[in-house]
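Quick start: what a row looks like.
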Amino acid sequence: MISLVSILIASFLAPEVSAVIGGDLNCTSYNGTAFVYTPAAVACSNTISDASCAVLYAAPNTLYPAAGNDAQRAHACYTTATATPAAFVADMKTAALTNCPKTCGFCCQTDAYNCRNANFPRLNCATITLSQCNSVAWRTIIAQDCPSSCGFCLSGGCVDAVTNCGTDLSICQNIGMQDFVNQYCQKTCGRCASSTTSSSSVTVTSGTCTSYIADTTTQCAAWATNGFCTNTFYTLAQRRARCATTCRIC
């Protein structure tokens, strides 16, 4: 009985292991009780392997940063010290951001996530989920209104609506796929407003030919509207073979 009481007293008096985030509160928010990591803190991928990051940045209390928890970051994520309180060392954090931002809970400060959202977004940027980031219905809107929520800060407001456009780049020049790529693969196929070239940069002549080769398809007017005559993804030979008259190519 005495030994049992001793164990209970010892356990009661033993200090509780704390997992409070310390040293750097970036990518966290206060939930009314404690600072916890935001979804954007761990939304990215590590540049090097997760296994390597786990070695370089071993979790002090076995838990790593995750959305909603308050796991203490590895000291090496932001300092050269081995215990808290610790002095912040900028070079240590730069290395963590470069190599293991997810393991250290710093994703929100990487270039892809660190930008301003629209002043009046069409949806709540703070509640965007990973499934919305990959959704055909939401990706293009998020890229324009809430780029920091999905790592679209470097996209210039234009992303593919579907995530596998780059699997087969031939679709960009496939005549029968133009309606699809214009709507769903704008980034991969260069159909973003800022990447479509003007007609002055393409070898298209107007007023210098006595006649033009006849169009070989009735779709030329629609294709021209979608950029067939001006977009450099199509070769001059392709434009001449299919829509010479519409594109005014001798």
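That is the whole record. Residues 1-18, 195-208 have pLDDT under 50 and may be disordered. The beta strands are 28-30, 35-37.
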